[in-house]
Amino acid sequence: MPNAEQIEYWNGDAGQNWAREDGRMAALLNPVAEALLDHLQPEQGIRALDIGCGGGSQSLLLAQRIGASGKVVGIDISEPMLAIAQQRAAADNSDIAALEFLRADAQVHNFENGSFDLLYSRFGVMFFDDPEAAFSNLRPALNSTGKLGFCCWPEPKENAFFQVPLKAVLEHVPPPEPPPAGAPGPFAFADPERVKRILTGAGFQKIDVSPFETTLKFGRETDLKTASLELAKLGAAGRLLADQDDSTRARALASIEKALAPYFEDGALHFPTKIWFVTAAAQA
Known about the structure:
By secondary structure, the chain is an alpha/beta fold. It contains eleven helices and eight strands. It has helices spanning 4-11, 13-20, 22-40, 57-66, 79-89, 131-138, 160-169, 192-201, 224-232, 235-242, 246-260; strands at 47-51, 71-76, 98-103, 116-122, 142-152, 205-218, 264-265, 268-281. The protein is globular and about 55 Å long. The two termini are 33 Å apart. 39% of the residues are buried. The mean pLDDT is 94.
């Protein structure tokens, strides 16, 4: 089965944990979704597909942008995350685009040809085990004038949000085996040239990868220790700590808090951040 490991991950304990953290992650990443929408300038009344929609916070932002005459379909493999998305869709959203959420794998789902004007994703397209097959499956879903727009992460070393907690944890635990180059995961699209090759191979045209720089704000009206503990639950640092004994975990958390102190101000952690904004067209 394509993407079997990802399906297991996002529907197991990890998926449940991400669902519990969805509100926090929406607060962290919605400014990025807003900036991506500013970059894409979607027109009113279009039909859009949100790939890897997760809890649907960015689907809602997209629906607000394109208005009541449009439609947004969010697709994801994670049942726990889609349960959160359905709660958002059930709210009173009469003045925005129709929202629909679909549990399916975008790599193999049978989309109707030409059914969307926009393929959109906020950090949701880096997890395919065969990305060229996935984008080859997605491209016919665009109409002839449609476009693709998504954001993805550069290398972890480009962003303190990832690098600082991980480096602190590695003072106390052995490093994990590095994943194979291009393996599914948050940084699978870190190399812009690889992204261009994948999209070219899938038949997209006018491909552009542009850097976007911003500041991510993590935590609200809290103290450094609390913000550090919450951040330590996420990403590679959280995975490394999950199997450690209490003593090792306590030492690592103390190191994380010390390392994050320079980024803490006014009740939150502030991380200068770099992101790739990727756009492409269905046809030249």
